[in-house]
Hints:
The protein is an alpha/beta fold.
Amino acid sequence: MLNVIRYMPFKRAPKGFSPASSPKAILASLLLILSLPSTAGEDNADAEHINIAVASNFAAPIKQLVKQYAQQHNIDIKVSLGSSGKLLAQIQHGAPFQLFLSADQQKPQRLIASGDADSESRVTYARGQLALWNASPASGQQRSPEQMQNQLQTQLQARLQQGDFNKLAIANPRLAPYGLAAQEVLQSMSLWDSTRDKRVMGENIGQTWQFVASGNAQLGFVALSQIQQPGKPYSGSVWVVPPALYSPILQDAVVLSRQGTDAQRQAAHDFLKFLMSADVQQQLAQYGYLPAGDVPAR
């Protein structure tokens, strides 16, 4: 399932335009609004239109970054969110995307190998972190935030190891890199077989988050970026899984070469440069990502 979000540059009403409450004024206002240039058309001269395919784990930051970029550069951007595997299949079947932000490195490389992506555009834009999450509010013992977090992490690990939960949600390891990381964690803890009957599998990391948030699963392996918000404490109980328990989640992006105009592809290159800027990379840390420079693209 894909979630589609559209960001368009703000269009100011003509000078002197002021809505009124009378029927005639309302009708005149509607006619005037309908006469304004639309940003939805592909040939819109005021703003180039590009489509970006984005892995679900990156939903929170991409919403803010694209909104900011669209207003600054007068560009109409549509974001489609889904599992990296599903997005790859859509691209291979001709979906009109100009930029692909994957949750791994393998899928962008496959697109380069097939001639569907520009090899020189490939970058590692983020390094993801995996977390085990329980959505229930933490009890209010009188402890410091650090002590509370340490206690909650210990409790979550114990619940996982003892099987003290009804369902454990993970993303499909065949489609979602965070699901593969969750499988690696369970295998490294010798829990893959023992949790088999209690596992529920999300199509992507977004659906996995929903299983836990709704209470349908008591525990779930999610992207840290889904539960970490800038300047806010975690909601529920969180164990940030040690990176030594799973392979690095290196997230690559590529500009796609078969869909759109030259102007659209250049716009995709420009947005990718913005994403890799030092300021944006610092912002990503607030969403639970490690700097992309920590591990170079392979």
